[in-house]
Structures are given as C-alpha cells and as structure tokens.
Design a protein that fits this description.
With 112 residues, the chain is an all-beta fold. Helices cover 0% and strands 53% of the residues. Strand 7 and strand 8 form a beta hairpin. The protein is globular and about 40 Å long. The mean pLDDT is 95.
Length: 112
C-alpha cells in the first residue's frame, strides 16, 4: 500500500523555522514527483506549494519561494521541507502527495 506520512509540524513564532518530513513507502520513490500542499484554516482547498522532481529540480509557488526549500533523500524514501521566515499566512495543515495519494497532514501554526 502507498503510504505517505508527513511530520515535523508545530507551533512557531513569526520569523521562525520548521522542517517538515514526508516518509514514503509502497512505491518506487526515486522516480516520482513529490509535492507539498497546504490547507489553510477553514479552507477546503489544498494549495500546491512545492513540486519536487525525481532529479531534484523544484518548483515553488511565489509566496514561499526564497523562504522554503524542498529536498529529497532517495535512500530514505523521504522528502523534506525546510521552512524559514515563517509568516502567519503559512499556518495550515501541510500534506505531501505522490501518485495522487495523500499522506496524513501535519499542522503548522505560526503565531504573531
């Protein structure tokens, strides 16, 4: 079974940093695109934040570009999202996704 487990969320002050992890299993990880999404409080939609290709190339939505950095460790079937200079607008549940599967999200709360 495909499984994606996001972790590393928490409560942080404005300007702080967090590092999220997404551990994957049940599929060949190396050649898959992994994406990070965020669902804002009270929102129904998940916003695409980052798309991480198998070769390490990344795409960032403009609102996080320069603050967030995605990386992957194929040996560990894990992707990471380093989030710096966090803002209150970054608050939400963060999900990783691959092959149209979604992992259980991790809550990030940025307090002012």
């Amino acid at each position: 079974d495909v499984q994606l487990q996001a972790s590393g969320g928490g409560l942080v002050q404005t300007g702080g940093s967090l590092r999220l992890s997404c551990a994957a299993s049940g599929f060949t990880f190396d050649d898959k695109v992994i994406s990070w999404f965020r669902q804002a409080p009270g929102g129904n939609e998940r916003q695409l934040l980052v798309r991480l290709n198998s070769d390490g190339a990344t795409w960032y939505t403009p609102s996080v570009k320069g603050r967030f950095t995605a990386s992957r460790d194929n040996a560990k079937n894990t992707v990471y999202l380093q989030m710096n200079s966090l803002k209150s607008d970054d608050t939400g549940v963060y999900y990783c996704s691959a092959l149209s599967y979604w992992g259980q999200g991790t809550q990030v709360t940025v307090s002012s």
